[in-house]
């Protein structure tokens, strides 16, 4: 509860007065409030930051980094074929695809990094303290994890994720939305290539299923 309150105050989602009042509530109320705060901050399916709290956290970090000239890079991702999986296999498999894609990222990023669910099949990965080149190397490990799942687990679909990474220039004043738009544009270019050039099939044909 204390950790949640600290995070909420940092994100300006509660003020000092609310924080003081919370210290005087009983155990049952603490449990209820803890659940409420979790819903305020986190996406319930993936346990990543939701859009509101995640972008608030990112905005504060960018302001801080502008003063201290620290490195940061943003990776915008889109899970390929989610609608296809939902429509043909059902939302249970669609949720499994989303969670698997996010868990693959969580296994490879550091504690200082975090993930924001922007909505639906779109996420933003914040790499704190590393540039685009290093972030791309992390993405290679994430993608290798997806490939291993696709080879080893015999799922009815494959995990395929498009990504785009941009640097936050520490000596330039960058707006959060423009940075995200740049990463989104790079992601879309890769998604178009995967769809039109590679023609990857997300749903496995019967003869390729184990």
| Largest sheet, spatial ordering of strands | 2-3-1-4
Shape type: globular
Q: Indicate the low-confidence ranges by residue numbers.
A: none
Succession of helices and strands: HHHHEHHEEHEH
Helix content: 55-70%
Helix run count: 8
Alpha-beta content class = alpha+beta
Characterize the biggest β-sheet.
4 strands, antiparallel
Distance between the termini: 45 Å
Please, could you describe this protein's structure?
The protein is of the alpha+beta class and 210 residues long. The protein is 57% helix and 14% strand. The protein contains eight helices and four strands; from the N terminus they run ααααβααββαβα. Strands 2-3-1-4 form a four-stranded antiparallel β-sheet, sandwiched between helices. A hairpin with a 2-residue loop joins strand 2 (114-119) and strand 3. Helix 6 packs across helix 7. The protein is globular and about 60 Å long.
Helix-strand layout with pairing:
Elements: H1 2-10, H2 16-22, H3 27-41, H4 51-68, E1 72-79, H5 82-89, H6 91-108, E2 114-119, E3 122-128, H7 132-152, E4 161-168, H8 176-198
Antiparallel strand pairs: 1-3, 1-4, 2-3
Helix pairs in contact: 5-6, 6-7
Short note summarizing the structure:
With 210 residues, this protein is of the alpha+beta class. It is 57% helix and 14% strand.
List the main descriptive attributes of the protein structure presented here.
alpha+beta; 14% strand; globular; 210 residues
């Amino acid at each position: 509860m204390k950790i949640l309150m600290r995070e909420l105050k940092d994100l300006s989602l509660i003020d000092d007065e609310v924080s003081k009042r919370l210290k005087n509530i009983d155990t049952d109320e603490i449990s209820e409030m803890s659940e409420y705060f979790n819903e305020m901050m986190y996406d319930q399916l993936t346990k990543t930051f939701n859009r509101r709290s995640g972008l608030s956290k990112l905005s504060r970090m960018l302001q801080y980094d502008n003063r201290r000239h620290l490195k940061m890079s943003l990776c915008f991702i889109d899970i390929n074929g989610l609608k296809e999986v939902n429509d043909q296999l059902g939302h249970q498999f669609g949720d499994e695809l989303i969670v698997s894609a996010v868990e693959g990222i969580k296994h490879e990023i550091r504690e200082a990094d975090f993930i924001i669910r922007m909505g639906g099949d779109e996420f933003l990965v914040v790499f704190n303290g590393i540039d685009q080149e290093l972030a791309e190397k992390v993405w290679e490990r994430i993608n290798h994890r997806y490939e291993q799942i696709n080879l080893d687990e015999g799922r009815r679909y494959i995990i395929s994720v498009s990504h785009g990474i941009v640097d936050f220039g520490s000596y330039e004043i960058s707006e959060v939305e423009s940075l995200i738009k740049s990463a989104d544009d790079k992601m879309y270019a890769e998604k178009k290539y995967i769809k039109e050039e590679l023609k990857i099939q997300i749903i496995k044909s019967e003869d390729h299923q184990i």
